[in-house]
Amino acid sequence: MLLRLGHLNLEMPAVMGVLNVTPDSFSDGGRFMDRDAALRRAEAMAKAGAAVVDIGGESTRPGADAVDERQELDRVIPVVEAVRRHIGLPVSVDTSKPGVMRAAAAAGAGLINDIRALREPGALDAAAAAGVPVCLMHMQGQPRTMQENPRYDDVTAEVAAFLRERLAACAGAGIGPDRLLIDPGFGFGKTVAHNVELLANLRQLADIGPPLLVGLSRKSSLGALTGRAVGERLPASLAAAVVAVMNGASIVRAHDVAETVDAIKVAAAVLETRKQ
Ligand code: 9MG
User: Fold this and answer.
1) Which residue, of 48, 71, 168, 177, has the greatest Cβ tally within 10 A?
2) Is 152 a member of any domain?
3) pLDDT computed for residue 24 by the predictor
4) Mind listing the pLDDT tens digit for each residue in 28-41?
């Protein structure tokens, strides 16, 4: 298994803390819009053991509206600069826009997290030039409409085929496998049953090669499985994180960093013991 990816040490499963700088994100309601509040939140996540913080300026929740590039840059770049300058924690930027990718890398971001897997025009070239690792995520449709009747014949096979195709597109653009992460995109154009099937079959995606990143924290599928409101999904989120790590995930994207760090330490200890 690859042990380093840019600034990230993947020797042990790692936690990516979620830092939304949007007014409308589904589970933290835009509480982190203000630069200083964002900085305090990033600091708390660093203390809690996050390996990286994922800063997003455009909500990706189902039904969300797109924002233009200027707005996204204004929301994200000052926070990237501040986190890098004052905390030193590695920063990921959740964006699909080539201009934001370029500006984020120039401001010190060490990872691009693209829910569109570099499919926007110019994104492959921008990511190649930025020279930082990229997370390629699967999504069926677009955030605005993706939960309107998502369909697959075989969700695991189709997600795997998509990720292999995007890895090949990256190779063609000069982005080698040593700079890539892959992600099945839980909740992005998927029903509860699709998400459960992907989680059950996660090992097949881990076997593709690049480190696997997963994001299940507080997602609506966990609400559907438990009957819990978004603020009550911590136990379900931790269970999902542990299942994911036991099945090959290297990075877990999470809102509740301290709790997720502890949960995956247990999973990592079991995995280490199995290896011996
Ligand atoms: C931005 N974002 C929201 N959910 C996500 C997930 O599951 N994976 C990745 N890579 N990004 C996500």
Assistant:
1) 48
2) yes
3) 59
4) 554 546 888 899 99
Range of the domain at 183: 14-275
CB-defined site of ligand 1, < 6 Å: 56, 60, 94, 113, 115, 135, 137, 183, 185-186, 213, 215, 253
Number of domains in the chain: 1
- Residue of 252, 237, 254, 210 lying closest to 12 (CA atoms): 252
How far is ligand 1, taken at its centre, from the CA of residue 227, in Å? Answer: 22
Beta-carbon contacts of residue 274 (< 8 Å; ≥ 6 apart):
none
89: domain CATH number is 3.20.20.20
| Local confidence band at 75 (pLDDT 50, 70, 90 cut-offs) | very high
Nearest ligand 1 atom to alpha carbon 219: 4
Tens of pLDDT along 194-212?
999 999 999 999 999 999 9
Task: Please state, in angstroms and rounded to a whole number, the distance separating the CA atoms of residues 107 and 32.
Answer: 19
* Global confidence as pTM: 0.94
